[in-house]
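Pilot study result, target chain (369 residues):
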Amino acid sequence: FLSLCFLLLFFLPLPVPFLSPLLPIISHFFSFVYTGIAVRAGYGKLLSQKDSCFEEYYAQCQKYGIPTRAYWYSYAKSVSEIRTETEVFLQVIKGKQFEYPVYLDFEEFSQFALGKAKCSEMAKAFLEIVEKAGYFTGLYSSKSHLETYFTEDILNRYTVWVAHYGVSQTSYKYPYDVWQYSEKGTVSGLTGNVDMNFCYRDDFPTAIKELGLNGFQKAETVPAEKKSVQEIAEEVLADKWGTGAERKERLTSAGYDYAEVQNAVNALLASADKSQLTDAPAVSLMNFGNALEALKKGDRVARTGWNGTNQYIQLATCISYKTTDGAIINAEHDAIGNKAIAFVGTSGIQLGWLASQADMLAEDWKIVD
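Predicted structure:
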């Protein structure tokens, strides 16, 4: 199993010092890749079956900055055996970094003779263990074997490297990222036939590194420093946190104590110049003009001087009434549209509330929940 895998638009020739020791690779199970190198880590269930050239080839890739992938050739005939193979594979690649997925190479006829259910069970066991260990993992096999001996949940869940020769375009019917289209390719500097591949996904290195897989450490994001309550209160006054229930929900979701922020807002309002109050959407210690502005933005407002409990005023919209014959009439007004101030108290709702002289001159208005 030898493959040449490349992306059409990128050609990264190997440095001359690196090419020479790779010439014997033809007789070894090694994949030469224009955008990287795929190295066979080993085969079977014994640590002694680690590929004798794996360490050398991996070291050379690291030395010359060539992206790397690895695969393990399986001979397992039971879930127990493939679990053992998987653990050996993980031992072999431990401490190394791979910019491309690490694959299960599944292509022995003795394995396919076990049937679809058993092949799927074994492949799933390998892939789940490798993924749980922190690797981006996938499955390699031929088109006919993939379609015949593996269930859809595996083929749709993991990245697939499909081998399909002698066609202008593979007809493999499930998702795949790499297509091995020939076993008779040639590469300058290497002797003999080389398998050829198209890789249709060029973000493997980026995705793997960002996710912290295949031996890479996930970049830690430094959380933004939490703003002080005073800063948030100033933003509330600048109308950056919405009004009413929306403001409360947003502040709470962001980890702030709503009551504490509201108290800070009130303190700022109390010390502010009266000329600044007309722009403030906020709450208590307001004059009547600011209370009206808060109403227009959807807040409920009340006076601290009102004796009744749970009393407030709110702007009502979409007002309509029903006539005796059952018709619904929208109460549209030329000047103010279909809206009016409603007074809500223990005795019910009063539409068309009118402020008294005391209400209009008072400066003890506040926003209420």
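One observation from the pilot: The chain has 13 helices and 16 strands. A full batch analysis is planned for the follow-on phase.
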